[in-house]
Structures are given as structure tokens and as C-alpha cells.
Amino acid sequence: MHVLRNFLFLITLCLLSPLVLASAYEAKLAPELNTAADLCAYAPCSEVLPGAVRFSTRKGHPPYVEGFDERDNRIGYVMLSTDITDTPAYSGKPIVTLIGMNNEGRFTGIRILKHSEPILLLGIPESALNKFNDQYLGQFTGDKIEVGRTRPEEQVIGVDAISGATVTVVAQNQVIMTSGMAVGRQTGILEPVQRTPARFIERGHKPDWATLVTEGSVRNITVRNEDVGLPPGEEPFIELWFGYLNQPDIGRSVLGELGWQRLMERLKEGEHAIFVIRTAGKESFKGSGFVRGGLYDRILLRQDVDVFTFRDLDYLNLYGVLTPGAPSFNESAIFIIRSTGFSGAYPWKLAFLGNRVDQATGQRSFANFDTDYWLAAEYLEGGRPKIEKAAAPWVRIWRMRALEIGLFAALLVAVAAVYANRDRLTRASTRKNKWPVNAFKYTAWVISIGYVGFYLMAQPSITQVLTWFHALLFKWTWELFLTDPFIFLFWIFIIVTVFLWGRGLFCGWMCPFGSLSELIYKVSGAIGLKRFQFKLSQRMHDRLKWIKYWVFFGLLAVSMFSMGLAEILAEVEPFKTTFLVGVFNRSWPYTLFVAVLLGLSIFMERPFCKYLCPLGAALAMPSTFRWFGLKRKQECSTCHACAAGCGSLAIDRNGRIDHRECMLCLDCMVLYTDDHACPPLAQERKRRQKAGLPLTPIGKDGYYIPITPVSAHAAKPATAGE
Amino acid sequence: MSQDQSKSQELAQNPARRKFLNTTALAGLSGAGLAAGLSLSPAATTTAHAAASDSASKVHLKPGELDEYYGLWSGGHTGDFRVLGIPSGRELLRVPCFTPDALIGWGITNESKAVMGTKPDGSLEFTVGDTHHTHASYKDGNYDGRYAWINDKINSRIARIRLDYFICDKITKLPNVQGFHGIFPDKRDPVDPKVNYTTRVFCGGEFSIPLPNVGTEDHTQYRSLFSCVDAETMEVRWQVLIDGNCDLVATSFDGKLAASNQYNTEMGARFEDMMSAERDSCIFFNIARIEAAVKAGKFKTYGASKVPVVDGTKASNKDPKTALVGYVSVPKNPHGVNASPDGKYFICAGKLSPTATVIELTKVLEWFDGKMADIDKAIVAEVELGLGPLHTAFDGRGNAYTTLFLDSQVVKWNVDAAIKFHAGDTKSQYVVDRLDVHYQPGHINATQSETMFADGKWLAVGCKFSKDRYLPVGPMHAENEQLIDISGEKMVLVADHPVRPEPHDFIMFRRELLSPKPIYQHEEFPLAVTKVEDAGVTRNGNKVTVKMASYAPAFEPREFKLKVGDEVTLILTNLDRIEDLTHGFALPDHNINFIVNPQETKSVTFKADKPGVFWYYCTHFCHALHLEMRGRMIVEA
């Protein structure tokens, strides 16, 4: 068994190593990529903006570069996705993408520099994602482009998803569109968003500083030394307070009547003023960048995706904060937002851009410290407006696949309901005719293989267990699990049923690959190959069944060091090849592996499930604690009738059922109430018939209901495992 | 016996008190402890010293701290207008108006020449000026930040300073006036209640001359005019022919009255004649009546001037009910007339009389209404303050502060107490405090003093002599503008600020009242070269127009060619939009230098009268490549 494990190890590594090297998977990027002014010195900008020979340095908030052709005409823009959005993909990490866009806002090139998507590492080739990206070329950034169908009535342009990597592409879509829009807005390609201007309620309550703080009318940004890589100190690196001055109560409180009036006279229609004061720290929020370039490069304001920066001409002296109880300060400013796109009614955030210095390397990087601000509802006519936030990727996916999700959930509930009523089905069945049970089970198999496996690609995998382990240990994010609704629901089903009934309901009824495997076995048997079918001896089986546990623990251990390697080794599961990618889409070793396993299934019941499946192993352990076990009789300890017919080889010499191995096929439960098949029952039947006694119905304990009352202990049922 | 005399006696008997006040001033100046061993009353000294160093710390701003007040200063015979920060006393800006300025190019550029006025040959008509008084425009009883006006006594010109750009935009010469001295804008319209802001500026003519000005020695034919200038158009609306002369000017908060003190009611031509009468006067102008008379055509014109001149002589204004003017008598050669912030009184300082005269405005209006026969009944107080009272400021708490030129003192006195004293209550102690200043103070003003919002924080005193107060720099001495904390009962001298000679009057007001613009707008300049592409040379015969743009660190064009004899007009726009990024333009051997602030346009016209290469260059530091910012004017023979 060691040999087998090592062999698998080697085989996977050898097959995959070239693939790994060529890809952008966890590619090592120059650290300067994220910070250097000259972005294009570190990124292949000309590849995404064909025709460009020269690029500017990073400019704007968020940053982008301009590309120029040979005649030095600007032909477009290049942006790095992580400069603009940190939208995580399936791996929880962003896909670092370089995006090119021409002067008209049409995409000219999209190039993935780095990703951490396991699905793209193994299985789906990276070219699929490149192909996905290519769908954007020539598209206008201002259009509504979504993963899914094109819906002209809603002006939605659809792009085709990658089967099996929905989360990845939905995230990628968001990254591309957000980046394009962020740069489009800054460069004037896109009209700025027009927000309804605030209509203020003047309360006349003359708030003091404490009130302003409680109301959220002034808010604070504190950056500690350690946040920017400096040794911790008592005084913060910088402590800022800021607030919105157009609201009359706040403005008057801060500036006084005269100061506020004069400020409002200076503002044109649609202009807004905020104030910022530094109450502690040595760092300046003004810096000196504005002296040469005219731009305050340490402070900016964001409202949704719109960024508002301040020029020297947008600055006014703040002559003092007159609010009673205001803290003293030693740097101050009034900044004017000159854009009708801004509205005081909507939330915004003020960001301080600090320079973080890595103590070890001395490397500098920008760090963004921001605080949300939203005027209190009491200051706004009609209260705070309703904000329609773009749904998170996982929400979109749930919406997009609502019907399929509904059907799938119904399937899971139906299977559980059927199994909950198993006693009625097993009673209706006999050893000769198991159709009342099998009709449901086989239906479940077929749906599971076709709909769940091949269509929904919702094949649970050991990688999910590993991911959960990590999430539990490090950081649990619901989003990560919600992004795949089928897997999410499946796991709810699995967890509930494992603790109710053991892993068998999933493994034996619902697992697409398990179902496929056993279906092949059953069909082969039915079409006359029965004589070639065999079981390993119980002794052999009892030894080999431990392999899967080793595989599981091996993967778990490897995952502690490298999730990537664990992902590679998880190819011991043939699921990806079978359902997610397709046997004909993969290189021959994978196809061969699946072929061997499925071929073996013709002759042997569920060889993979029994001996290799790490997921099964993972689920087997908690199955020990299932709530409802299968029933046993006293006589089972000596009668081996069930054990002989147990396809899972889960009934031991003493008649005990090992629920860690049991697939809940219910064969033994059919026997349990079959008075022609269960030896003790058959014996009793014969006795009663001989004695001319009536055959009373069979009770829950698997015996005929006694004709005369007997003492309680005489009819005590025995269940397995007790 | 006046209260003042009793104070003087007290001081004489107790010279230490005077010394103590001096010491306090020094302590305030240095901010260091000087209290040890100097005082008679340790407790008093400690308090005063603590107060002094506290105010002193407010005067000495930390790096990056801003002054709380703007100060607008006249420059005297430098002919300029200055901006100071108060309380620090730091000079922030000089605005050239009547006289050329090499830095700005004032008097060099075509635009500034047009404002200053030129002779037919295009050269400046005047290159000297003497500014004394500056006052700003009002709205609702406070400054509104639109304009300030300043006088040129030498050439009788009034200049307007725009307070958004801090530039002089108009200069008007007053016809038939010499020695234009006092100036004051009105604070609201006397008739239209909606016009609660400045629309007129009044100007007092100090010297008397023949009308029209013919060369006669017979001074009995000499007259003075009081002028009204429109605040917007800067045209002279009307003038009043008066008996005697005008010195300083004040206006009432209700807009109905303007007044000027008269030190030469004798109409003497020599000073001994000017001082012959025991009482001179303060002349009050009834603005509504004057304008009605002008409207009714009851005016004359003199010489080439078309400005209507109404008759304000005593002989023609005997009936108060129709009088355009009223003459209130005040003691001998008064100086300064100041309006109290409560709107009730005008106070004339005696100069040659040790008194101040308090005139109640409602009573003056009663006289004009015919309800009071003797206009001198409007005098509600005439009290002694000390020797050589000149000007008065107010703290908004009922106190007046008057400079005593000869005593080198500022006296703080309570107006209500003075009125009571004058009414016969000899126990009324109207003098609150006295403070030595250094030396011989002229003008005085307090923060917001000339508005309805006098805040009684700082008092500035323009001392005409500094003598030993600064490091010696030869015979010419700086003026000594001293700053006094008046927030407490006692005045505390906190700072000496040297100023280049020689400012006279000034005002100080809250910084919130101004909204200066950080850069210019192209719309202000019809000639603006708004884009680099528009730069270039166009020729029409020998008239050449060079349109030039500056954009750090280059001029565009970088070179241009001319022929000897070309008459060149060079228009330069600074296209930089960064605040404070000013460029200069100097052209060697052609007497040209001027600056263009961001988005500003200026032009110069000159003759290319000699062949050669002339490197024009940026004189105002602008960029790391500032030295490289230059270009060639190539003049071919």
C-alpha cells in the first residue's frame, strides 16, 4: 500500500510539473510591480495595448498609465487590476490582471499576470480563462457586461462562463469592468455618476464636538506607527478628524456663522467642502507634493467607485474649529470637492495614503487608511437614501442559478425524506424484490450522475474539506463557501446526514462518482457479467480499507505546508477528470486513471470508494457519531445472512455493521423484515405456521408482534454497535 | 482742572509707575522674565507680566500658524498699498498702485500703464505718489472683501484695490483738488435701505487752490473741494465747494452723514495764519441733500472738469432745513475724525488742543432737521486727553484709544464717562489707562474698529519715530508699528514691528472676511493666449505682435526674430495652473521686467531699436529648470 501511494504521488508530480511551470499560477511578480511609478517597466504593457511604444508613469487615483504610439499620440490606457480592486476570486486571492483600453474605452488586451485559482492549475487549462478574457476585446467599458446570457431588453451583454470555474470568471468579470470604469471615469471616457444632491434639514441644535462625534458628523482616521512599519510609539503616526461642511448645522458649528457664510458664498452650485484637522502625530496630511504638482497626494475622497482628489486650488485655509470641545490641532485644511458627481447624502470615505516602509527590506509601499462617512439621517430630508450596492459575486451566482439551485435543494430534501421513510420501503421490499428501495436509490443515482455530476458539476471533493480546515484554523469567510451554491448546499446535506445517518446517504445515494461506479457494477451484473464480478475477502478488505484514511491524512498534512501541492495530490480523486473537465479534455494519464477505476467498477463494487476515496475517509470518521444506525437483532451476532450479501463488506463476523463503511444500500434492512429471508424470522414463521398461530405483523424490532403480552425484557431489540 | 492733569500729577509724584509701564512693555517684547527687582508692587507686576508674556506668545506665531487678522496699510510716499498679518506684523504683500514697481512690472506693462495713466507719448504721467489712508468696502456694517481704496496726496488720485486678486484696478484723478488727504467709503445708502453696502467713496481736499487753478498769489481766492467718487465706476459723482479745508474723513453707519475735520478754517496760506483761530471745525455733509441738489441742477462746474460742484459755503447754507453742510466747531487745528462702532459719535482729536471732541450724530441730524438751532450743541463732550491728540480707535466696549503725538502715549478713555464729565460730573473718571509708545504716534487703529463689530483685541499704533528701537541702519529709520493687547483693562504693549517708511493709516479685520483668489482666470484678460498653440509672431508692417505662453519651465515661442525698428507688442500668458507658480519675464537692454502669476496675462510694447541677440528669461523662481527657462529675441539689422 505504501508502494501504491508513492506511485500515485510520483505520477501526479511528474505529469503536472510542466503545467505548473508554464502558468501564471502563483507566479512570482516583482514587488515593484505594485508600487513603482513606472508600471510598465515591470509589466508587459505593450501586450495589452498593441501599438503603444511608450508609457507614462502611474497617474490618477486609482492609478493607471497612458500609452503612446510612435508619433507620441496617446492611444489608450493600461491598468493593473490590483491597483483598482482587490476583488478575490475562488482562491480568496485576487487575479492580478493587466488590462489595456483604448481612448474610446474599448478593451484592447487582458493579460493575467498571476492567479491562485486551483481549478486553473489542474483541470481547466489556463487558456480557457484567456479565452474568456478575449471575449472582452473590443467591448466598451461603459456597457453592462455580465457572465451569462445576453439580455438585450436589459442592455446586458453576456460573456460565456467557463464550466466549472464560475466563481473565477464572475470575479474576473467584476475586476475587468471595475478597472475599466475606474479609469474611464478619470479620463473622461465615462460620464461621472450623477447622484441626487443632498437636501439638508437644518436642526439648529448647535452641536458641540462630542455631539458631532456621536452623530458621525466628524470622524477620525488614526494611523499608528506600526501600521506603516515604524517602531511602535505612544503618539500615533497621524490622527485626523474630518467632517462635511455644507450641512448648515455642522458647518456653522465648525466655522462659526461668518466663516460658514463666507465659505458657502465661495462654493459654486454642486461644490462641497470638507475640513480635515490633524490632532496628533508628526506626519503631515498635506505633504509637499502639492507645491510642485498642485495635487495633494496624501488625501483623497471616495464615493462608491468615484475618487475625488484635491488640487492646490481646491484648498482653503481652515482658520479654526469653533465647535465647543473641539480638540486642538496643528495642521488643517478645507478641501473643496468640485464635482456634481458627489452628493453629501450618500456615504463616502476619506482616505489617508501613508507610505509603509518594510523594516526588513526598506521597501516602500502605499498604504491606504480610510474611514467611512455618512451624514446622519436627521440632517437629510427624507433620511439617508437607499443604496443599491452591486451584489457580491456569490449573490450574483445564487441569483443567476436560482432555478437549478432550487431543483438541487429539492432533490436533496427528497432524498433525505425518502431515506427517513426507509422502514416503509424496506418492509415493502423482499430479498427477491428490492425495487421499492432501489427504484428511489437508482433514481437518485441517475440524477446524481447526470444532473448533479455532469450538469451542475457539483461533485464534492476532498479539497473542500482541506479548505475548510484551513478556514477554521485561519480565517473563516462565508463568501468563500457561498460562491459555489451547489457545493454549499451539498455540504449542508452531507454534514446533516452524516450526523443523522452516517456517510452512507451521501456516498451510497448521492455522490456522483460513487453512483456512477456502482451503477456500472449493477448494469454490468444485469447484462451478464455477473460471473466475472468478485469481492475481495473480508480479511483483504479490512486491510485495504485503511488506505483511504492514509490518503486523507496525507493530503491534510501536505496541505499544511502547501495548499497547492495538496491540490495537485488531490488528483487522486477522479472527480475533476470525470465531471468538471471531462475525460476527453485531459491528458492521457488522468483519462487512464479514470478508465481504470471505472473499468474496475465493472467487476468490483465501488473499488475507489472502498479503498482510495479521501473524502469518504473524511466523512467516515464523523459517521461514528451518527444518531440513527441500522437495526440489528440479537440473532445477528451469529447469523451471517446479511453479511454475506453486504456489497460494502461492512458487516463483520459478529454481525455488527461498520457505519464508516456502510453505503446505506438497505439490503440488510430489507432482510430485517423479510420473513422469508431473515433466518430468525423465517424460523418463527415456520413455527407459527406449524402451530397454526396467526402471523402477526412484524414490529419495529424486526420480530412478529407477540400474540400474548410478554415481559418487556424478553423482546428487547438489539441494534448494531450497541 | 481736568482728569488728565490729575493723572499727570500722579505720574509726576510717582515716576516709578511710568517706569513700570515701560518695563511691562519690554517684558512683553522679549517674552522673558524681567520682573525681578523692578517693581514696587510684586503682585501687580506678576499679573501684568503674565498677561504680557501670554499676549506675546500669541504674537509670535509658530511655523505654519496663520495670523488672525489682515492688516491693510498705506505706504506713504513709497506710493504703495501693503498687506500685513496681525498680530505677527509680518508683511505679506505690497500692492503697487500710484508708483512703478520693478518686481510686478507695474508701470512697465501696458495694462498697468493704462490703470496708472499715461501722457500722449505713452509714458507714465506720474511716477510718484503719497498714500495715507486706506479703507475697505462695507456691507451690513462690516467689511465685505470687495475693495479697498487709497489716496495719493501728491497728485490727488484715488486708487481702488480689488481684494480678490489684491491688485489695483482703477485710478481716478480728482479734478480741481490738491492735497487729497482724507478718504472714506460710505457704509450704506442714505436713502435706499436695500443698499446696505458701499457705493460711494468720499475724498477730502486739504490744500486750497484757485478754481480753476490759475497762478495767483491771492490766497483768498483759493478753495477746497470735498469729492464723492462712485465705488463701482470710480468716476467722480459730485464735489462740494466748502469754506476752509478738509483733512480726514469719516462716514456714519446709517449712510446719512460724512464729515471732515478742518484745521484751516482761516484759509491761511502760511502755518501761522492756519493756527490763528482758537476753534476750527468739523464739517458735516448731508449726502441725501447734496445728491438732491445735484439732481436738481443746483451746481457749477470749474475749468475742464464736468463734475458737478454744489455750494457748501457757510453763506449759502445758513438755513439748517435746506443746508447741504453743517460746520461744528472744534478746538484749534483738529486732526482725525473717527466714527465710533456703536454708530453714535464722531470724535475729533484736537492736535493743537489737548482735547477730543465727541459729536453726537443724532443731534447733527436734528440740526439738519431744524430742531436744534445751534449745531455746536451736538458736541456732547470735549475732554482733555494729553498733548497732541491725533487719531482715535475703539474696542467695541465703549472705550476710545487716542494717540498723543507729543506725549508719545496712547490714552484709553471711556466715551460715556467723558460725556458725563463734560455734562458736569467732575467725578467721572474717563481716562482708563495710559501707555507709553515709541515714539510720537500718529495713526492708531484697533481690530475691526471701523466696523459695527469692533472686537477689542489688538491695537496698532503707527509711531512716526523709531530712534533707538532697531539696529541702526544709517540715518534713515524704519517706522515703528507697535502692537498693543487691549483685551484687558490695561493696555499691554506686545510687539514692535519695523516698517519701511512711511505708512500712515491702516485697518485690521478678521481673516474670514476676505476670500482672495489663488490664481487668475483667462476671462479677466482679453488678450490671453489661452493655449500653447496660439503662441507665435504676427507682423503688420513694422508692427509686430508676439504672443507668448509660459509653462514651467519654458516659454513658447522659445525664440523669435525681429528687424531693427520694429514696434513690438509682446503678450505673455502664464498657462501654469499651479498655485504660486509665477513666472517672470525680463528682456535685457529694453528696460522690461514683469511677472505673470498663474493664468495671468500681461503685455508690453517696446521698440526693437538695436540689433543683437537678447535672451529673455524667467526672473521669478519657478522650477528646477528655472535657469534654463529662457529664449532668444533675435533682432536683425
Explain the layout of strands and helices.
The complex is a heterodimer of chains A (722) and B (637).
Chain A: H1 2-22, H2 45-48, E1 54-55, E2 65-68, E3 74-80, H3 81-84, E4 96-102, E5 107-114, H4 118-121, H5 126-134, E6 144-147, E7 156-159, H6 166-186, H7 209-215, E8 218-223, E9 238-244, H8 248-266, E10 271-281, H9 289-293, E11 295-303, E12 306-311, E13 315-316, E14 331-338, E15 348-357, E16 364-373, H10 393-400, H11 402-420, H12 422-428, H13 435-455, H14 462-473, H15 478-482, H16 485-501, H17 504-510, H18 512-529, H19 538-544, H20 547-561, H21 563-569, H22 575-581, H23 588-603, H24 607-611, H25 614-623, E17 631-632, H26 641-645, H27 667-672, H28 679-691, E18 718-719
Parallel strand pairs in A: 6-7
Antiparallel strand pairs in A: 1-2, 2-3, 3-4, 4-5, 8-9, 9-10, 10-14, 11-12, 11-15, 13-14, 15-16, 17-18
Chain B: H1 3-13, H2 15-30, H3 42-59, E1 69-74, E2 80-86, E3 91-96, H4 110-116, E4 134-139, E5 142-152, E6 157-162, E7 167-173, E8 178-185, E9 200-207, E10 209-210, E11 222-230, E12 236-242, E13 249-251, E14 257-262, H5 271-274, E15 279-286, H6 287-295, E16 309-312, E17 325-331, E18 335-339, E19 345-349, E20 355-360, H7 361-368, E21 379-384, E22 389-394, E23 399-404, E24 409-414, H8 415-422, E25 431-436, E26 441-446, E27 458-463, E28 479-485, E29 492-499, E30 506-510, E31 536-540, E32 543-551, E33 554-556, E34 559-563, E35 567-574, E36 583-587, E37 592-596, E38 601-607, E39 612-617, E40 630-636
Helix pairs in contact in B: 1-2, 2-3
